[in-house]
## 1
Amino acid sequence: MNNLYKLKDFQFTYPYGNSSINWAGSYEINSGDIMLIGGESGAGKSTLLHALKGFIPETIFGKMSGTVLFKGKDLCHLSSVQRAKIGYLFQNPASQMIHKTVRQELAFGMENLNIKPQVIRQKIAEFSEQFEIEELLDRNIAELSGGEKQKTALLAILLMDPDILLFDEPTAFLDPSSAKHFVGLFHKIAKDKTIITVEHNLDYLKEHINRSIFIKKNGEISEQSVSNIIWEPSFEKIKKITPGKKVLEIKNLSFGYKQPLLKDINLDLREGEIVSIIGDNGAGKTTLLKLIGGIIKKYSGQIKYENNEIRQIHYKKYYQDLTMLMQNPENHFIFNEVIQEVNHQTDILQLINLHGYQKRNPFTLSEGEKRRLSLAILWSLERKIFLLDEPTFGQDAKNKENLINLICQMRQQGKSFLIISHDLPFIKAISDRTLMLKNGYLENVSGVLNA
Amino acid sequence: MRKTNDLTFLFLAFLYLIPILFSDNAILSLSSLLLAIINISILRKINLKILILMIAFLLVPIVSVFITVLLYTKGANTTPVIASFCGLKIYQAAFDNAIFLAARAFSLSVVSFVFLLVIKSDALVFSLMQNLKLPVAIGYSLMATFNAFFYMRDEFIRIRIAYKMRFQKKIFPLKLLIPILVSASRYAHFAGLTLESKGLHKEKTYTEVHKWRYSDWLILLANLIQIIVLIILFGNKYSIGFTLG
């Protein structure tokens, strides 16, 4: 096997944060390795990927020592085309879109490799059919859902036929069936490639991974045996309680942008109840939360809170009882310090595993930590109803378990939750009822899911 | 029908702005505007709904320009009075100037807006890179910037909602600029990393080809001739215009 990467005493520290990565000794990554980078949230997994892509220290600044060699050369000395053969998927797919349409985005990487236009067109047609995204090709990227953007970003990289694929949470925004389909096809097409991936949804990868490393919170990196990996964490199902009175009631709700998206939706939420909604990418889950949150006001049907139509309730009163977790955690931050964000409630930081971060700037946290902080902000508001959009994004099993316990405690106090997530083990553990949004309709799938 | 290059529309925009900018009467300004709209609508579909909405918004400032000039044209009182209301006299020169300036402001705004409506930003950037050798780094950065407007708009909406839900306030403090600025800089950072990551370089190929064709020259030439005819017909011929120095 050819030696691809050689890391020696690699250390890196960001200039603005406390996080660092510390790799003592020498380590090699060979061609054909399909490697999982594991570790706690905020340990530096994405930083390591940045180093392997060659972003560090040229494009991402910080204090670096040691060496990261690619085929015996410093990554800085590779040409742009050579570097393009190292495919990189960023954690947030929306931030890596340059073009207006999906077709343009898919073509861009291949154009940089000087591939002829007719070959590019042919490859796009072929791959989009295989990955079932033909209907997205001429759509405006700004109108796509998070999952659809993720699919576009993944395919754009694969079309470049890179020798090495670096993935930062490739399935984070994908629904389970798409994730399985995508990962399967990826490994079929890229079977001889080297793949290095950071992923929390390990279930999809278990058939493919042959090496694994683990990064500790203090930045230390060690090799981990693949046989020791817990591929599908199972969480203990929370105890059932008798829910209280009806707080939210949705009757015959229909809504669409250009075409009907939600049709005749009926749903109710009771005090202390946890209801989860699953569904394919672009099914309209986030739109449904926006409607319930009073963000979208034009719809047909009824959404009632405590027997009053929400359009008739003053927003000050409604938002005293209800709040919503946005998909991008940074949307919630406005202060310079973590402690200010949670209104100086240190106990909440302790609960959400962010103790010791009080003085940190929220924007300098890792993605997983940002997600937990955004949840802590919501907890600190003490509302009655929580609408959560992908609460487990970027969380490891330990933090997910912690989150389950927290939500469980809160529901004992009569708080209700409506959760959107693709994380099935989490959904199975936490939900009193699970509903699936399919073709615009909502159906109860609790029985199927728990079977 | 062959596709007109977006660069042609950019040149046409400048071409139509010339007679309006240098016109000395309202007829020339308004006829240039009319000609521009007719010619553009032959080449590309104009979203009339947005255009009418824009014109409706424009009416307030245009009427304000008209009234201001009508009331404050220096030296107009040496010309005949054409009307009077409640003791307020309207002089010929003030009226001519008011009509002319309002027509010019209206024509300039509407012509610019019509071209904005029909030019596709991404196609224009592609065309600039392919035909005028605009450096790819600048071209793709421009494209990312155009997309950033939509990204930032959505981000701003989400930030505002999060703030409204958290503090139950509709008036947003300056502090709210922090997440928006962070979001903008992060977008710029990742756009740069993406361009580098995907190996952007000047010798690249293009799937979307935006060639400058003879038909584009012909369109420019035909419009130029029409504009010249318009200037000959209406330039400096009518009394509605600057009659005072």
## 2
Amino acid sequence: MTGSFDADRPIYQQLAHRFRERIVTGYWQPGERMASVRELALEYGVNPNTVQRALAELEREGLAIAERTSGRFITEDEQLLRTTKRQLAEEATREWAGRLRALGLDQAEGARLATAVWTDGHGQTKENNA
Amino acid sequence: MSMDDIIVRTAKLTKNYRGRPALNELDLELRNGRIIGLVGPNGSGKTTLLKILAGVLADYSGTAEVLGLRPGLETKAQVSYMPDCSYLEDRMTPNDALDLFADFYTDFDRRRAYEMLLAFRLEPTQRLRDMSKGMREKVQITLVMNRAARLYLLDEPISGVDPASRQLILDSILRSYSSESCLVISTHLIHDIEPALDEVVFLDRGRVRLAGNAEDLRAESGGSIDQLFRSLFQSEAAGLRELGATAERPGFISRR
């Protein structure tokens, strides 16, 4: 099982988010054939229908492409991959900025802290370690 | 997921134990392609319902149907049932149990079951009487999950096992899942199985208190199913505390 899920958001949305991260980081390569619903369900320890729902999101966004007979593939649309990555990064930054603001830090302090933590190597996420 | 079949249907299903209702006019419909969590406090009727669906408890009133038939010999061939206590003889070994199931059920995959025994780190030739409660539960789950049934009924399958093995059991459930079958799992350890569920049925005093798609219930309540369970049945706990408070009052007065 890969990580646990937050109680306050539907699991399929959280799953779709993790799938997006895997795609934009190249953990799943452009053009690669995706694992089956059952395999993903096992890997994440979730219901197969939940996986199906998360994959439907990705298909709607064009990140995954279902082909009638041969399975589901990761998009090779580099423009889409870039914009998606940018969106994920913005989301994360907004979340981070919100927390710092709640702690009473201003923008300059936040930026300084970001630089310091970044060079420490503590800024790496562990999200994508399967 | 092609067709939606009704696997289980009950209507006004009622079962009394010495005049006390265990099931009280229960109406329920369960379809294929779903993993369903049957939850509720002790005595809410979970075990009784599973026993009736499994065809081991017959003196009830109202309607119970499995694949359109009254639970009995015919449905048993399509129902894989794990009761809340062991029915295997103490002197048996897991190997014996596998042989028994292979003889009894044509849909039993003995090879896959054997592999699962090994994954659980069970000794195929050890006698069940020399095993712990958790080990025996693993033998049972191995037996029921390696049949290709239309309906799986698991009564508290994870209560006695360690967390690592719970994961293995969940794995085996997800592995055996098929869009043709329906899997009902009764438990009070909702937290551990929540991500694996499609639907949740909350039983309370022999009736359905609340039922629905797990994701929808989470979205509506803004929390986990586990939290929803606590909030649903918290009022009862609060009621008990109140009862205790009023009971104490006379003593308090007499002390004055």
## 3
Amino acid sequence: MADTHAGHHDDHPQVGHVVPVWILTAVWITLMVLTLLTVVLAQLNFGPFDLLIAMGIATVKATLVCLFFMHLYWDKPINSAFFLASFAFVFLFVSMAIADTGQYKDAVEARQVDVPVVLHPDEAPAP
Amino acid sequence: MATPVDVSQPSETSAPAEDHGHDHPAHLAHHFESPQQQFYSGKLGMWLFLVQEVLFFSGLFCAYAVYRANHPEVFQYAHQFLSVQWGGLNTAVLIFSSFTMALGVRAAQKSQQGLLVGCLAITIACGFVFMGVKYVEYKEKWQHGLLWGTLYNPEEHGEHGGEHGAVAHDDTDHGADSHGEDAGSAAAGHDETTAHDEEGGEAAANADSAEDTATEGAGEAPAAAEGTATDAAVPITPATAKGSELAPPGSAPSGTVPAEVRVEAGEHPPEPKNVHIFFGIYFAMTGLHGLHVVVGIGVLGWILKRAMAGEFSSDYFTPVDLVGLYWHLVDLVWIYLFPLLYLIN
């Protein structure tokens, strides 16, 4: 993709893609607006959707950074493939861990009720 | 001596003296066919490193996810000690530095030496600003005893000292000695045991909360707090405490005071157990991220030095590009850390 530019101009690189300034600026402004948006939305209460909204906005921001600041939009697809694969594994990792901990959550909590957490055993007053 | 081969190191090492007789750009290592191949190989290598970075951070994100899934109340309580202003400022600083980094890569690609140096310098400066803000934040946490594990002792410090601290220290004789800060936690644990015994266990968390609020309210004179204290006293009876447990927190079941009301009445919400684990996660995540910023400042400084020596041009800008990728990844991590740590509702 990027090679199509080769040799057009002295200042043009043989490799990579020169991203126009207006795209970089637009991405930067969008990122700032989204940051403001996520801060504002965090003041409101959407109940269970709070986290979903915050993570959604963060993912849009991350995607913008990846595509344009990190050139993935113009890059060889293999780089995107590797990077996305890492998130697939993170998803597996985190979701399995949460599913697992959910399985014995009740048992742990039932136990914790009777066993107070004492940070400093030596200092604990006699029962 | 075409030594094998630091891809990022151009010129001198691959001097033409005992070369293979064909002419190629000074920056092209001899095991690559073309600058294109070298560029794309380097880039793929960098992306593989970034993949590793993502997996590296994912361990901490996983710890966060598991603990928040099981103990949302800890996060709701503890995030109020993080300043959205500072966090937001740092977000803006990092995003701006990513922008200048991207502009820097563009300048390198177009052989705009002065612009490249300027962009790199601004990016580095942003890194320092970020770390400066982090220092202010960390120092504040340190002063208030908002730390990990056994170092978590907010009772000893600041505004909290007047509330929880006073109550806790009355129960023990450690108030004045050097272990005074530990006594608070231990006494709190003891209080909880008593509460559990009385309430029969299940409703204990709610009752604890109510007790905390009540004592805080009593400790502080204002009229607003007094109303809170009486309201909060309601859920102490087992019946109401049971009722409140059936409904999700914050949904204002009849007969109990929803958390928001107590907050609005000028109170800190009652402190749940194990808040120190939030700060453990907070310091581990922001600490590892901060370490990456420091390393980023280091490699950017190295790139800046080479840029000032005029090593980069449209023919050869790979190191700028790859360090840029790393810097953007640091930004990416923060884009997730900011809402996860600072913006909990």
